[in-house]
């Protein structure tokens, strides 16, 4: 049975609420604090594992309490952590400050995630048919080597090009089989101004600008509007589900992890997108990122 291999980031999210965020040089008193499991890599690995597929993780955490907790969380969800190295650098951390107007200020410190190296990839053997998943929260050179090895081994490579910062080497873009981006990332990497209500044809045209070789697929996630996939010839649209969203953090991660899992389980891409769209619509009804990912049974119950 093919497996999902995620090379990606692991963060602890420190979520704080306060009446208003501090100005430079100022100290304010906060109201609540909570510690969540996050990082796009971890979120996607958990989302995939909860769909019932074997998942192996490649990443780094510090030799600190946050690192212990992240490893325990991955293992409790059945994710293989033989490829997660411990380092003297701290575990990646996101400090999220939410004020009384629900306005966010966020600092993300990559820390150990910034050290994930090509040599770390040796810990997990890639087999033909495996689904490789990564995001832009570990060094680009490591992702490029991961995908180069994956294509050589006959695996399928899935890149979630998030966050939308800088660009990546051409060799990396060419080694992607399935690229997943949200509307912001699509606009950034395609170099176009996309309105949030852009028509499907405009989204598809922008998505096609990201293709570097025949055989690539670009999936654009469109929030409440669902998702759209384009190949050179075809286009598939999965309409969004109407739900009461309470926290959309990690929605895209849930979608990517669930797509990867369903591809490993033998779905076609349109089938996998249908499943992932339902999974992500469940995730947005719950608070948190890694903690909010639904199980395969929860998704299948809604699809039945
Ligand atoms: P990101 O989290 O990366 O910004 P999106 O906002 O596009 O990504 O969301 C990813 C997926 O999550 C969407 O394709 C959709 O399936 C689902 N989703 C996101 N927001 C909602 C929502 N408010 N209601 C229902 N589904 C949603």
From TrEMBL:
Activity control: Activated by a monovalent cation that binds near, but not in, the active site. The most likely occupant of the site in vivo is potassium. Ion binding induces a conformational change that may alter substrate affinity.
Catalytic residues, chain numbering: 253 (proton acceptor)
Family according to the record: Belongs to the carbohydrate kinase PfkB family. Ribokinase subfamily. Belongs to the carbohydrate kinase pfkB family.
Residues where K(+) binds: 247, 249, 283, 286, 288
Name the UniProt record assigns to this protein: Ribokinase
PANTHER family: RIBOKINASE, SUGAR KINASE
EC number: 2.7.1.15
Species this chain originates from: Nitrospirillum iridis
Catalytic activity: D-ribose + ATP = D-ribose 5-phosphate + ADP + H(+)
Keyword GTP-binding appears in the UniProt entry: no
Subunit-level organization: Homodimer.
Protein role: Catalyzes the phosphorylation of ribose at O-5 in a reaction requiring ATP and magnesium. The resulting D-ribose-5-phosphate can then be used either for sythesis of nucleotides, histidine, and tryptophan, or as a component of the pentose phosphate pathway.
Main location: cytoplasm
Pathway entry: Carbohydrate metabolism; D-ribose degradation; D-ribose 5-phosphate from beta-D-ribopyranose: step 2/2
Record GO terms (molecular function): ATP binding; metal ion binding; ribokinase activity
Cofactor note: Requires a divalent cation, most likely magnesium in vivo, as an electrophilic catalyst to aid phosphoryl group transfer. It is the chelate of the metal and the nucleotide that is the actual substrate.
């Amino acid at each position: 049975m093919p497996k999902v291999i995620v090379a990606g980031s692991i963060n602890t999210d420190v979520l704080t609420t306060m009446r208003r965020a501090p100005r430079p040089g100022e100290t304010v008193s906060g109201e609540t604090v909570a510690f969540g499991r996050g990082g796009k890599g971890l979120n996607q690995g958990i989302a995939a594992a909860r769909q019932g597929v074997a998942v192996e993780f490649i990443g780094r955490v510090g030799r600190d309490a946050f690192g212990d907790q992240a490893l325990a969380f991955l293992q409790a969800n059945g994710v293989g952590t033989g490829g997660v190295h411990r380092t003297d650098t701290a575990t990646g951390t996101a400090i999220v400050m939410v004020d009384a107007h629900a306005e966010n200020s966020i600092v993300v410190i990559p820390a150990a995630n910034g050290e994930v190296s090509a040599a770390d990839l040796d810990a997990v053997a890639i087999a033909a048919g495996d689904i490789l998943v990564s995001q832009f929260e570990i060094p680009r050179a490591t992702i490029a080597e991961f995908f180069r090895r994956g294509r050589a081994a006959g695996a399928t490579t899935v890149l979630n090009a998030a966050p939308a910062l800088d660009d990546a080497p051409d060799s990396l873009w060419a080694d992607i089989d399935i690229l997943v981006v949200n509307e912001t990332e699509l606009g950034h990497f395609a170099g176009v101004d996309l309105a949030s209500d852009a028509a499907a044809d405009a989204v598809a045209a922008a998505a096609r600008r990201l293709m570097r070789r025949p055989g690539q697929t670009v999936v654009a996630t469109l929030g409440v509007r669902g998702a759209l996939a384009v190949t050179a010839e075809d286009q598939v649209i999965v309409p969004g589900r109407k739900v009461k969203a309470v926290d959309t953090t990690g929605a895209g991660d849930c979608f990517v992890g669930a797509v990867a899992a369903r591809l490993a389980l033998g779905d076609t891409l349109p089938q996998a997108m249908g499943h992932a769209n339902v999974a992500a619509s469940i995730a947005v009804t719950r608070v948190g990122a890694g903690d909010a990912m639904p199980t395969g049974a929860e998704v299948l119950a809604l699809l039945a």
